[in-house]
Amino acid sequence: MVTYIVRRLLQGILVLFGISFVSFGAMFLSGDPTSLMINETWTQDQIDEFRHRMGFDRPWPVQYADFLSNAVRGDFGTSLRTSEPAFDLVIERMPATLQLTAAAMLFATVGAIPLGIISAVKRNTLPDYLSMSFAILGQAIPLFWLGILMIQLFGLQLKWFPISGRGTIKHLVMPAIALGTFSLAANARLIRSSLLEAMGQAYVVTARSKGLAERVVVIRHALRNALIPVVIIVGLQLGSLLGGAIITETIFAWPGVGRLTVNSIYNRDFPVVQAAVTLLAAIFVVTNIGVDILCAYLDPRIRLEAD
Amino acid sequence: MREIPPRRRRARLVRSLMRSKLALIGLVIIILASATALAAPLLAPSDPARVAVAERLHPPMWQEGGAADHILGTDSLGRDILSRMIYGARVSLLVGCVSVLLAGLIGVSLGLVAGYVGGWPDTVLMRIADIQMAFPFILLAITLMAVLGSSLGNIIFTLAITGWVQYARMVRGQVLSLREKEFVDAARCVGVPRFRIMWRHVLPNTVSPIIVLASFGVSAAIIAEAGLSFLGLGVPLSVPSWGAMLSQAREVQSKAWWPAVFPGLAITATVFGINVVGDWLRDVLDPHLRID
Predict the structure, then answer these.
(1) What is the percent of chain A where pLDDT is above 70?
(2) Contact A140/B268, CB-based, under 8 Å?
(3) How far is A278 from B31, CA to CA, in rounded Å?
């Protein structure tokens, strides 16, 4: 188990290096990073001075080494707009993004369990068809459209929930539903198939034949085993949720890292974009390692293979 | 494994399609959407780019104040929503199909080489794949589009670059197990060259899962394109696209519901159609991946 954890952590460090290289290298894709950040009114002297101040006149390996050693210390330079440290700007908004993502994840998991169970237990009946239709639809609706529809209906027409900003629990409801629906649909389908598979196993037949109530068979025996793949998928969904949060935050004016990233892109404020991209990806890497270690703990086959 | 003659196999596919009502609905949606995209100039009632400020925010024809010259109403610049949706189908399907084709081409070739050759090319490729998988997909796409600038070509490039990994991983995994099969050994023994073994004997056996992945890839790419265009990072604003229509509709959301509802409906219906056909393909082509 220790060997497995150490190996996984080393891999994680390698991936973090790669991430730093990508967020550094992305700016050079256009040829000259200076051209991304200036506007047409600048004189050549101003451009040269800016290029020198940002260090873009040095060879790129030197720039990368510099970027990396600063990034490790949490220094991504200063915002070109507000002159505040880019890292601080991102960290300030991180709690809002994590709150939104966590709420969406909770909604996606808690909502999916009853849907999946009903579907599996009442297989090929009306409740199954209804919940699976809902799941198929939930995977087809783009979250930005769902968000807009909810704003129209529950925000502007019925005035049940505020349509923008962060503060009360009421502010959180619509963004979390918009962001979580896709994952909820995916989870419901996964729980259904996973539960159906478990219900065919010998231990379920045993549980049934010793006269246990069907409810006990499903919840105690089948569901427990069926949830292992679900745990893995829920962990992996964090990546798409963090990505989706960028769009959700833009729709609902949620003051998180995603909205900051999009606004920084509009303002060509690349130090902030780099800091945000690197930190979001780093969170994702760390959670993935956590999920993998949890899997190895739950399923001895994985860690034995690694040892 | 018993060899099934192609003709009987085709008949079996058609029969299974007729049995699955959902897949049939999906197929009809896909055909309708493709036909709309192809015949856009014939179908669109008016020029999608024609701005008529005097006709701004006309409601759909069945609502009070609506008229038959704008069946689904007009947007905040007085442009005909139905015409823009019809032209928007072109962007969505073009981006969806071409980006998946490119991603599949890159991913399948690299996965084939990595799996069959092994050694350092395999290690390097899989580490690159690991790093790319560490980025939330939309985040990577947003970063690339921010740097490259919005254009149809750039968005296809971005989605191809962010999408190849899953094909590479899947094909590599398949190849690793196929490599040990007797028929590959047999080919090797009679002296078939390595490239020919990969092309003639290994690749055909990975086609089913590739088709399944690609079908979900198209719907993911359509949503991603709409999402990026929604953020203003997709196709240029001058090109009518479903995502950009939604983004422009947000500015008038307190005054008019129709600019936001119809384009979203088009995206959802198209993605729904592709997804249910994808589910059906997975059930038919690849029993191992069957959901139930």
Answers:
(1) 96
(2) yes
(3) 42
Residue A95: the pLDDT is 94
User: Residues of B with CB below 8 A from A240's CB?
Assistant: 136-138
* Residue B160 touches chain A, beta carbons under 8 Å: no
CA angle A85, A89, A91 (to 5 degrees): 115
> Is A189:A117 a contact under the CB 8 Å cutoff?
no
Nearest CB to B134; choose among A250, A251, A285: A285
**Which of B130, B136, B279 has the CB atom closest to A243's CB atom?**
B136
- Mutation site for B-interface testing, chosen from A132, A148, A150 by largest number of B Cβ within 10 Å: A148
Q: Which residues of B touch A13 (CB under 8 A)?
A: none
Q: What is the pLDDT of residue B26?
A: 93
Q: Would you mind telling me the total number of residues written for chain A in this entry?
A: 307
Token pair in block for residue A253 = 């004016």
Q: Between the CA of residue A233 and those of A116, A125, A293, B218, what are the distances in Å? A: 15, 27, 14, 22
Residues of A within 8 A of B125 (CB-CB) are none
Contact at CB, A142 and B140, closer than 8 angstroms: no
Query: Would you mind telling me the total number of residues written for chain B in this entry?
Result: 292
The predicted-structure confidence for A168-227, as pLDDT tens digits, reads as follows: 888 999 999 999 999 999 999 888 888 888 888 888 888 888 888 888 888 888 887 777
A9-62 tens-digit pLDDT: 888 888 888 888 888 888 777 667 777 777 777 888 888 888 888 778 888 888
If you average pLDDT over every residue of chain B, what do you get?
86
**CB–CB of B184/B199 below 8 Å?**
no
The backbone torsions φ and ψ at residue B74, rounded to the nearest 5 degrees and listed phi first, read -125, 160
Q: Is A27 exposed, middle or buried (0-12, 13-18, 19+ CB in 10 A)?
A: buried
B137 chain-A contacts, CB cut-off 8 A? 239-240, 243
Q: List the structure tokens of A40.
A: 């047409």
Task: Judge contact between B74 and B55, C-beta under 8 A.
Answer: yes
